[in-house]
Structures are given as structure tokens and as C-alpha cells.
Task: structure prediction
Amino acid sequence: MSEATDVTRENPRKVREGVVVSDKMDSTLVVAIVERVRHPRYGKTVQRTKKLYVHDEKNEAKIGDKVRVQETRPLSKLKRWRLTEIVERAR
Result:
């Protein structure tokens, strides 16, 4: 056997942090991820927002919470992320 069969997962699942924008659905959150990117030509820092649909099994996160999410297999038409932890509760 070659060593290639003993290699563990090469591409670990992505982890992102964001703020819960909506919790109206059952077991699903909408989380806004904000990333800062430098403009390729002008060098100015630009904010880009991406909305992710996240699976929240116990419906524990609420709007305004800062959460950590992890990539997972497709759970529905739009859900590809799973809630791993609530970093900070909304005030």
C-alpha cells in the first residue's frame, strides 16, 4: 500500500464567523459574513457581504448573535453550513 491511502482529509471544512440576520425559519438561520478585500486596481479596502443559510438544530441562535459556522454537506436547496457555536450573544 502507498502512503496516499493513509493521508487524512487534505481539505478541512471551511469555518466562518458572522452575525445572524434572520431566525424566522425552523432550524435555519441566515448569517451575514463580512469580508474586507482590497480593490485590485485602486487599493481601497471594500466590504463584501455574503449571506449563508445555516442549519441550527436546536433553534438556539437569535438575531444579532455572533456565530461560528462550519461547511457541511448539502442539507437542503440552499443550506450548506452548520452552526458550531455562538461566539457572542446579542445585547
Summary: The CA atoms of residues 26 and 59 lie 7 Å apart. The longest strand covers residues 28-38. The domain at 11-88 is CATH 2.40.50.140 (OB fold (Dihydrolipoamide Acetyltransferase, E2P)). The chain has no helices and five strands.
